[in-house]
Design a protein that fits this description.
alpha/beta, Rossmann fold, two-stranded antiparallel ribbon, 7 helices, 36% helix, binds iron/sulfur cluster, metal ion binding, Adenosine 5'-phosphosulfate reductase, PAPS/APS_Rdtase, adenylyl-sulfate reductase (thioredoxin) activity, Rossmann-like_a/b/a_fold
Length: 240
């Protein structure tokens, strides 16, 4: 794997566009060893647009938990048609999921924090490990503004839990800037955003938020805010 000077790159690319950041990563790491994680959020739609325009052979993956909103699956179809590409799809291991549902019931994620985390582990974290085992860098749509735990986010990071690079090209973008890009390029987006949803994950664990509420307050709303992550984005000192 190529060695990147993260500190230097973070200074050098602070004022550069996300497209410049993506081009650097694709050129230096290689198109087959980089993948964009998409949950079909507005951020991921922006990055999909940029990445596919830079290289139509780019890898974009989707973790199909089996519990997404129908509107998310519809958007996936629409996006595939718009950009004429296919997502790499990673689903939970059937045995693991079958056992958990048989033992705890179909809605076991509501039972306790531990079982909720177990569900995220089976449906998201473990499939993520499989895809990240095939790359040297993953691109994510995380932004500093999204939550207090993301305030320290950098553009170029080392993901120590997967031993690969993690690239956050829009780490410094505001939500307004994301929407400007979506509108300007007429990018398809999940219409749930028009109904008060601001961070969209699995249907049973996502709800709309009121104006002024934290962007991520509609995710796992019944839990303590400190524990509200699915384990996909682990950093030294906690999850983001
Ligand atoms: Fe399970 Fe909810 Fe996590 Fe989706 S967000 S994997 S349904 S606990």
């Amino acid at each position: 794997m190529i060695q990147l000077d993260l500190e230097k790159l973070n200074k050098e690319y602070l004022d550069k566009s996300p497209e410049d950041i993506i081009k650097f990563v694709v050129e230096h790491i290689g198109i087959s060893r980089v993948a964009l994680a998409s949950s079909l959020s507005i951020e991921d739609q922006v990055l999909t647009d940029m990445l596919i325009k830079i290289n139509p052979r780019a890898r974009v993956f989707f973790l199909d938990t089996g519990r997404h909103f129908q509107k998310t699956y519809d958007l996936m179809d629409e996006t595939m048609q718009r950009y004429k590409f296919h997502y790499e799809v990673y689903a939970p291991e059937s045995k693991e999921l079958e056992q958990a549902v048989a033992e705890h019931g179909p809605n076991f994620f509501y039972e306790s924090v531990e079982l909720r985390k177990k569900c995220c582990e089976i449906r998201k974290v473990n499939p993520l490990k499989r895809v990240l085992g095939t790359v040297d860098a993953w691109i994510c749509g995380l932004r500093r503004e999204q939550s207090l735990t993301r305030q320290e986010l950098n553009i170029f990071e080392w993901d120590s839990s997967h031993s690969i690079y993690k690239i956050n090209p829009i780490a410094f973008w505001s939500e307004d800037r994301v929407w400007e890009y979506i509108k300007k390029h007429n990018i398809p987006y999940n219409y749930l955003y028009n109904n008060g949803f601001r961070s969209i994950g699995c249907q049973p664990c996502t709800r709309a938020v009121k104006p002024g509420e934290d962007v991520r307050s509609g995710r796992w709303w019944w839990e303590d805010p400190d524990k509200k992550e699915c384990g996909l984005h682990v950093r030294v000192g906690g999850t983001v």
